[in-house]
Design brief:
This protein has 159 residues and is mainly alpha-helical. The protein is built from 5 helices and no strands. It is elongated, with a radius of gyration of 21 Å.
Length: 159
């Protein structure tokens, strides 16, 4: 009788532990798929680890935002404004990427190339932003390029 009770307790404990582990991993996986922490995404969950061009572009945006947030110089007001603006631009590019991924394969290449150029521009702006406030002129040019790329994406034109 005691052995049966212990066995049941062991099985129940194992199931509870496994459930907690699975839920924790799902939450971490979902968090790893977010471009800007605290902002939900409509990107497919599988993009967190997939090797499709869309998934890689999504992760590049996520990694660019992560790099900006890791910069200790972000406490300067100009730098903070630039970071927030860049995060918003990255979200806009990601939204367009999600829309492009839904297109049929035969018509996806050109819009995907436009999104890829916008991701390149975000990464270039991040590089300037991480360089610090002394790179303000370069950052302003890079931010203007990102805004131009995002504007073209929103208008549906080629970049």
């Amino acid at each position: 009788m005691t052995l049966t009770v212990l066995l049941v307790l062991f099985v129940v404990s194992a199931v509870v532990a496994a459930t907690v582990v699975v839920r924790t991993q799902k939450r971490k996986f979902a968090e790893a798929n977010v471009v800007v922490p605290g902002t939900s995404t409509k990107a497919p969950a599988e993009w967190a680890g997939a090797h499709t061009p869309e998934a890689r572009l999504h992760r590049r945006l996520r990694d660019a935002v992560t790099a900006v947030r890791a910069n200790p110089a972000m406490e300067d007001a100009f730098m903070m404004d630039a970071r927030v603006s860049l995060e918003q631009q990255a979200l806009a590019v990601d939204e367009r990427l999600i829309a492009v991924a839904a297109l049929p394969e035969g018509v996806r290449a050109e819009p995907l190339a436009s999104v890829s150029a916008a991701v390149d521009a975000v990464e270039a702006a991040v590089a300037q932003l991480v360089a610090g406030p002394e790179s303000k002129p370069g950052l302003e040019r890079a931010m203007a390029d990102v805004e131009q790329q995002v504007s073209r994406l929103e208008q549906g034109g080629s970049v």
